[in-house]
What we know:
The structure holds 2 protein chains of 2 kinds. By secondary structure, chain A is an alpha/beta fold. Chain A has 2 domains: 30-109 and 183-254 and 346-411, FAD/NAD(P)-binding domain (3-Layer(bba) Sandwich), CATH 3.50.50; 118-177 and 257-343, D-Amino Acid Oxidase, Chain A, domain 2 (2-Layer Sandwich). Chain A has helices spanning 6-14, 42-53, 87-100, 103-107, 125-140, 150-156, 184-197, 242-248, 311-324, 373-386, 400-403; strands spanning 32-38, 60-63, 79-80, 118-122, 146-148, 172-176, 180-181, 201-203, 208-213, 219-224, 227-236, 256-265, 275-278, 283-287, 293-299, 333-343, 350-353, 359-363. In chain A, a hairpin with a 5-residue loop joins strand 9 and strand 10 (219-224). In chain A, helix 2 runs parallel beside helix 7 (184-197) and helix 3 crosses helix 10 (373-386). Chain B is 8% helix and 34% strand. At the A-B interface, helix 11 of A face strand 3 and helix 1 of B.
Amino acid sequence: xxxxxxxxxxxxxxxxxxxxxxxxxxxxxxxxxxxxxxxxxxxxxxxxxxxxxxxxxxxxxxxxxxxxxxxxxxxxxxxxxxxxxxxxxxxxxxxxxxxxxxxxxxxxxxxxxxxxxxxxxxxxxxxxxxxxxxxxxxxxxxxxxxxxxxxxxxxxxxxxxxxxxxxxxxxxxxxxxxxxxxxxxxxxxxxxxxxxxxxxxxxxxxxxxxxxxxxxxxxxxxxxxxxxxxxxxxxxxxxxxxxxxxxxxxxxxxxxxxxxxxxxxxxxxxxxxxxxxxxxxxxxxxxxxxxxxxxxxxxxxxxxxxxxxxxxxxxxxxxxxxxxxxxxxxxxxxxxxxxxxxxxxxxxxxxxxxxxxxxxxxxxxxxxxxxxxxxxxxxxxxxxxxxxxxxxxxxxxxxxxxxxxxxxxxxxxxxxx
Amino acid sequence: xxxxxxxxxxxxxxxxxxxxxxxxxxxxxxxxxxxxxxxxxxxxxxxxxxxxxxxxxxxxxxxxxxxxxxxxxxxxxxxxxxxxxxxxxxxxxxxxxx
Lengths: 417, 98
């Protein structure tokens, strides 16, 4: 792998940019690997990367039915934050946030992590109570979060409407300054390049159609559209399709898959300097470096794999955006899209060993998995390599739905699900 | 937005009138306190989440307000049929080859 640097740009400029090499190779699948990761999204590629760099396991294949980063990694709204209520969630999301800081240097790939601040609005007394509780809980966990008055919120985000005449006036806000955004595609590409350089095989257009198990129940490999590929360990990181893959191994999951939509506006000059979220009016917004307003909508109410969603969901979100930012009422929206998110009953992810020996699962990130990408890959690689969870992901078992030891962020994740 | 046929109103109405109520044909135990942890987990948390045909409950909130069941393809979102609550799971689907 050739290192990217200012010197490399100058060198290539001198010779007509003929020396750039492919960022990752596309090898033919081998007959057998030590570890197979199902799904080449951010989480899967990060897992492969940390298997190689932290644990020295490089005989790894990442299988992807479509193209690399073409699922939810390329469809999300790239918000990064760690202001979750419960200790377990704070642990895993802040682990990720710490890895975001410095990730560009680690990968030698600009993931454009921008700690521009995530501000969550309160519109009524209940919001104030909930968000202040978050501020205190976060601080106890060593996570930055601070309370702002409407005037301070307006100072931090000038286009925000704090008029008392608004239908849902802003009465305060919680701000996590370390929160922000990153470039989603670059995250997938950076991890893919780093993993590939260390010998990991990334195999696109290779759909897993079955999971093979030995008579003793242990995993022996996967059937794919490109033939059988053997492995003693298989990690399923398939987002909305996780339950489909797990069913192939005979494991029924506490998951339901829903379409989640997002949309972007026409590009404009810098106007929104941070991320603004509101659970009460249900909207969140940031501005990409290209100038587009990036807006996240809600999920549809029914199980679907259609990667599309109802127009009324987008309309509802835009109503809220116009309420928060009257300045945007005449903006044109450029495009909208949907992704399929896998949601657990307690809205917390599952990163764990499974009842099947050699089978591991990293799923259930629901509507907010992007922010966790580095941390999720890091602890999931540990879980696979050691056949034992990392202390950070130890609480995120499948068994919690039997024992009742839930991590019930459903009403606490500081985001409307 | 989906168009959904309410089997009570016998009319196709827009999705906004309805509320999805999750997977259908999951029977609640008559003796909940006697359920084992495994059985309770299956009843309460585990879902089939199929990529394909799903049997699901809907409620015609802003119409007759009654619950009913539907058969839908989760890949195309097309409804295959709807039927009244309490009716058995259809053994044969209209248009299906088997």
